[in-house]
Specification:
- The chain has about 325 residues and is mainly beta.
- It contains 2 helices and 20 strands.
- Strand 16 (about 270-280) and strand 17 (about 280-285) form a beta hairpin.
């Protein structure tokens, strides 16, 4: 065989590999209009299988026979909101991602360091150091492992589920969750169900989140986030906030914030209550000063020390 023929064969092989990679990685379609995204999926070898609706979301399953990949697409307001790998059975196929082991729920859930083989697909990125390792939910019923390469294992009810970490989000079972550092672990905020779950490295019943009366920053009862919120434990000058900044608010990553009419501020994050104050259109909390600006359904804060913006919406 001539050198020229060998070179052409190598080129064809590389192009073929790139084509398969393009079909497998569909994360670039997130945010696209549904009609455009569906056409792109078909061009990459995916075939529509079925669809369901839940609240403001619609979910569609797509199957790619060339790489035996099943994906679920969550669509909201006419755009692709998330794309995640799913069990082959969800696309009316047998076997799972790697065949024989049952896809998302099969294989060896083990609970050991290996957790069996990871059975998923999609783009991954390295998680921050505080999100690597083994964690447990506050009730101790969910065990979660995030590997350095972004592979995720969740053991719940005797079953193992496989997900992935990508760009500070967790993709698991068709859901997308943001993740925020908190205490000796982190919290996740499910963008679909709007649920917040806390994880820590502590496997005890309270999950290491201090349980009961956590004391906040300055002691006292955190009040359980009812109408009273317990006694405010702070000091300093306060002023009455504008009407749009009064009441209960929450951030996308699960931080709960309450501003009273007199300017008292309560923040619950990672199972702890922190006390601050509102004064002259600024929030003073934990030694930081933040400006506040009205948004459509709440407000945004800009931490002047950290140069960080956080958005809050009305609860």
């Amino acid at each position: 065989m001539s050198v020229r023929k060998i070179f052409l064969i190598l080129i064809i092989a590389v192009v073929s590999a790139l084509s398969v990679a393009a079909q497998t990685d569909v994360s670039d379609l997130v945010g696209s209009r549904a009609s455009n995204g569906e056409n792109a999926l078909r061009q990459r070898g995916y075939v529509y299988v079925k669809g369901t609706k839940s609240g403001s979301y619609s979910y569609t399953n797509w199957w790619n026979s060339s790489n035996r990949a099943c994906i679920v697409v969550a669509t909201r307001s006419g755009r692709f909101d998330s794309i995640n790998g799913s069990r082959a059975g969800d696309c009316n196929q047998n076997g799972g991602f790697n065949g024989g082991n049952g896809g998302w729920n099969g294989g060896n859930n083990g609970g050991n360091d290996d957790y069996g083989n990871w059975n998923g697909n999609g783009s991954m990125s390295a998680p921050p150091s505080w999100a690597r390792g083994r964690f447990y939910s506050r009730d101790g019923n969910i065990e979660l492992r995030i590997r350095n390469n972004g592979q995720i294992f969740v053991v719940n009810g005797g079953q193992t589920f496989f997900g992935r970490f990508y760009n500070n989000r967790i993709y698991l079972n068709g859901d997308t969750s943001t993740i925020s550092r908190s205490g000796n672990g982190f919290s996740t905020f499910n963008l679909n169900s709007r649920d917040t779950t806390y994880y820590s490295t502590d496997r005890s019943g309270n999950g290491g989140w201090n349980g009961g009366n956590n004391g906040g920053n300055n002691g006292g009862n955190n009040g359980g986030w009812n109408d009273n919120y317990g006694d405010w434990n702070g000091n300093g000058a306060m002023s009455a906030p504008p009407n749009w900044a009064r009441g209960k608010f929450s951030s996308p990553d699960g931080i709960e914030l309450r501003i009273r009419d007199n300017g008292q501020v309560f923040v619950v994050n990672g199972g702890q209550t922190f006390y601050g104050r509102f004064y002259n259109n600024r929030i003073y909390l934990n030694g930081d000063v933040s400006t506040i600006a009205k948004t459509n359904n709440g407000f945004s804060t800009y931490n002047m020390n950290l140069r960080q913006t956080t958005y809050y919406s009305k609860r």
